[in-house]
Design brief:
Elements: E1 2-10, E2 16-23, H1 26-35, E3 38-45, H2 50-56, H3 61-76, H4 81-91, H5 95-109, H6 114-119, H7 127-139, H8 142-198, H9 205-219, H10 221-240, H11 242-254, H12 259-280, H13 284-294, H14 298-312, H15 317-321, H16 330-341, H17 344-402
Antiparallel strand pairs: 1-2, 1-3
Helix pairs in contact: 3-4, 3-8, 4-5, 7-8, 7-12, 8-9, 8-12, 8-17, 9-10, 10-11, 11-12, 12-13, 12-17, 13-14, 16-17
Length: 403
């Protein structure tokens, strides 16, 4: 089927509607619109906006949250799905999201379910989103499912925002350290070298090393840039490979200072996603399959996959998760309570809340602790370079004074 953009008048409201519809031909699209109560005014085959349009109209998390909440509100108010999508489309400002909603609307009006229509845009709507919508359609609680999706997205976005905030300060300090080193190498060190040359004195070994580094960098700056670019390029390529992803994911779980934060992040993500899926009616095995991807860490994903295999074999989820070292102990304990009470989703939600609260505290602790550590590193680096420059000058002045 092809996508056709159209402009039509709604017979019921006499309003002009602009959207897209899926059909085999232009005449088939017109026939479909007439059957749906529209008077076609203009129909043409839809075209893609190109890569530049996609870049300029990126769909952010905030856009998706607003769209999801608006759609849930309209459906909950009793509006038909197609009309709800048209209304949300009119209120959406993001151009790329407008195009996506038009395509989803056309797909729905063409007879496809909402979850199937969303699944055509997996670059924007992930497996958790699509699975929750599908479960809501089956259970007749689509508005509730969409609200759960929006809440899930908000919690994930809020958590990631706090973690980025904790990591921003170290990056800024590292940039300052590099800037200080560059300033010393290219402005102060050459002056020291000239002073020693004018007095026909040999440079101290540490100062000579700094002079050699500065001279090499100044003469072969293009080579330095090429090496840095190659390291960045091949490093990025390696991280995209399976072994590279495993290495980076394992590093996050074991990195000094940050391992506690990342472990709690992934546990919160696993339990919160699991709670949302189970509460919406998704089966246990489907929940585990979806959370494998949702946690976004290959090491944790493998642990969940091993637990899922054991659950298939008849084991309780709590027992299947216990042997996994990367799964923090509170998770199987809370799930075990949920299995006994028949409220696994609630217990996973409580575990998620615990880890989200602990994650907040962990982020605050890291932010507080890392500041003095980085200040000491900055002082050592800057002080070491200043010492390598000033001590030779001081020694030189003393020798001249002695003479």
């Amino acid at each position: 089927m092809k996508n056709f953009s159209y402009e039509a008048r709604d017979r019921a409201t006499n309003k002009i509607v602009k959207s897209t519809v899926q059909a085999d031909s232009e005449s088939a699209a017109a026939h479909l619109l007439v059957e749906q109560g529209f008077v076609p005014l203009n129909i043409k085959e839809a075209t893609e906006g190109g890569w530049l349009g996609k870049l300029s109209g990126r769909v952010g998390t905030k856009d998706k949250i607003v769209f999801t909440r608006q759609l849930a509100t309209l459906i909950g108010a009793g509006l038909p799905l197609s009309q709800s999508l048209h209304t949300v489309l009119e209120q959406t400002e993001n151009k790329q999201l407008q195009t996506v909603i038009q395509d989803i609307t056309g797909s729905v009006e063409g007879g496809k379910s909402l979850s199937v229509s969303f699944s055509k845009h997996k670059d924007i709507f992930d497996d958790v989103f699509i699975s929750l919508v599908a479960a809501g359609e089956v259970s007749g609680t689509l508005d509730d499912a969409l609200l759960r999706v929006a809440t899930q997205q908000e919690k994930d976005a809020d958590t990631m925002s706090r973690i980025r905030g904790a990591l921003t300060y170290p990056v800024i300090v590292l940039v300052v350290i590099v800037a200080v080193m560059a300033f010393m190498l290219f402005t102060v060190v050459p002056q020291v070298q000239k002073l020693y040359e004018s007095l026909h004195k040999p440079l101290p070994i540490l100062t000579q090393i700094m002079v050699n580094v500065a001279t090499f960098t100044e003469q072969f700056w293009w080579l330095v840039l090429i090496v840095i670019a190659l390291v960045v390029y091949f490093g990025a390529q390696y991280i995209r490979t399976e072994s590279g992803r495993r290495f980076m994911d394992a590093l996050k779980l074991n990195a000094p200072f940050f391992k506690g934060m990342f472990r709690k992040l992934y546990m919160a993500r696993f339990t919160r996603t699991g709670q949302t899926l189970l509460a919406t009616g998704v089966s246990m095995l489907d929940m585990l399959k979806i959370t494998e991807t949702a946690v976004n860490n290959s090491v944790i994903s493998q642990a969940i996959a091993r637990a899922a295999d054991k659950v298939k074999g008849g084991k309780a989820l709590s027992e299947a998760l216990k042997p996994e070292d990367v799964i923090l102990s509170l998770v199987p304990q809370m799930i075990s309570i949920g299995e006994q009470s028949g409220k696994i989703d609630e217990m996973m939600g409580k575990a998620a809340q615990v880890y989200e609260d602990e994650l907040d505290e962990e982020v605050r602790t890291i932010s507080t602790a890392i500041e003095p550590v980085l200040m000491v590193v900055l002082a050592v680096v800057a002080g070491g370079m200043v010492g390598a420059i000033l001590f030779p000058i001081y020694s030189l002045v003393n020798n001249l004074g002695a003479k």
